[in-house]
Fold this sequence. Notes:
The protein is mainly alpha-helical and 87 residues long. The protein has helices at residues 4-22, 29-48, 53-73.
Amino acid sequence: MITRQDFFKAVEVELDKARAKHGVNHWGRHEFHSILQEEYEEVWDDIKANAPAKQLNKEIIQVVAVCLHYLETGDRTRGEHPPLDME
């Protein structure tokens, strides 16, 4: 079983790896959508192919890392994101 702590650590590792490779770019909403869609489609492809859970987990972690990157870096055309409303 994957714990929440292990999952978020894996997301952090993936995000650090992606930033080391691609830099810390600010995306606009359309760029974010395109990148997120590409990652989601990889998840869907693995589901359709009945890929091993380890591979599917890797793709899911990449989806979350893309979302976190967008939230942390702000929007290239709209500026920083407001603080999260945790209500």
